[in-house]
Amino acid sequence: MAMNQTLKAISDPVRRQILELLKAKSYSAGEIAGQFDLSQATVSYHLKLLKQASLISEHKQKNFIYYELNASVFEEVLTWIYGLGIGGNDHDKAHH
């Protein structure tokens, strides 16, 4: 997993909003752009970064490309974050 790429992708508020949108169902780029006051090119740029970070995937249906959330990457990130904190570090327990 490319953690730096993933964290950079979710650091942007617009990309986080796109991810929130895709939680419910898949959308085409045009449908996503319609939810924001941004140009199609700007939305495409954000989608490209999310796709490069494997946070979303795409599939073609007729003449449209639909984007959907890739939940497995979030599970990996959460597992990693969890390992940093609660119960995941015996060294931490020794200092308390």
Index terms:
DNA-binding; globular; three-stranded antiparallel β-sheet; alpha+beta; WH-like_DNA-bd_sf; 96 residues; 15% strand; WH_DNA-bd_sf; disordered C terminus; 3 strands; Arc Repressor Mutant, subunit A; 59% helix; transcription
Q: How do you describe this structure in short?
A:
The protein has a single domain (3-86), classed as Winged helix-like DNA-binding domain superfamily/Winged helix DNA-binding domain (Arc Repressor Mutant, subunit A), CATH 1.10.10.10. It is built from 6 helices and 3 strands.
Question: In words, what does this structure look like?
Answer:
It is a single chain. The chain has 96 residues and is α+β, with helices and mostly antiparallel strands. The chain has one domain (3-86): Winged helix-like DNA-binding domain superfamily/Winged helix DNA-binding domain (Arc Repressor Mutant, subunit A, Orthogonal Bundle), CATH 1.10.10.10. The protein has helices at 3-10, 13-24, 29-33, 40-52, 71-84, 90-94; strands at residues 27-28, 56-61, 64-69. The chain has a 3-stranded antiparallel beta sheet with strand order 1-3-2. Helix 1 packs antiparallel against helix 4 (40-52). It is globular and about 45 Å long.
